[in-house]
Amino acid sequence: MEYEDCYLQAQRPKYDCLLFDLDDTLYPLSSGLAAACGQNIKDYMVEQLGIEKSKITELGNLLYKNYGTTMAGLRAIGYDFDYDEYHSYVHGRLPYGNLKPDPVLRSLLLSLPIRKVTPIVCKPSEIAIERALEIANLNPQRTLFFEDSVRNIQAGKRVGLDTVLVGTSQRVKGADYALESIHNLREAAPELWESEIKTEVGYPGKVPRETPVTA
Q: Which SUPFAM superfamilies does the record match to this protein (predicted)?
């Protein structure tokens, strides 16, 4: 029984789950979608809500910082608008044609010896992250979180996740790893593939057990 427990422990990978952000993480900042989305939000605030153009940048930054998204912030301070209309205006006009198939990334992700699940949850609320972990029945200490936002990385760290900051090789507070590109994942964290190797580990006999001696 002791031998079986040790063998199973040797087979177990370090992480049960890899939790990926999408925007500017699984696809790059260079796609231009983030910049286009930001501009669409500003245009919506001016053209649809009648907010003075000179106040847009400061107000948008404040709402994003305090409420997580500009949309949530606008509703919180009293603006009434249709959610679907907002999303259609802001996201329906994005240059999605800039996103191209990425066979290298696809192959990299499919090669990971972890089952594939794709939930969508809004951040940086710690409650949202905790809810995602609860829904997926995950142990945060055995979950690796991928993000391009330092703020979201730090929120993930506060709930106990190990974290990977994507988009820079410079580690910041709250980041356990930092990747210039998601394509560098294997080089930066080769242990994610270790379970493929460990499944071949065997033992010739029982694993010795330490016995305390009083002298």
A: HAD-like
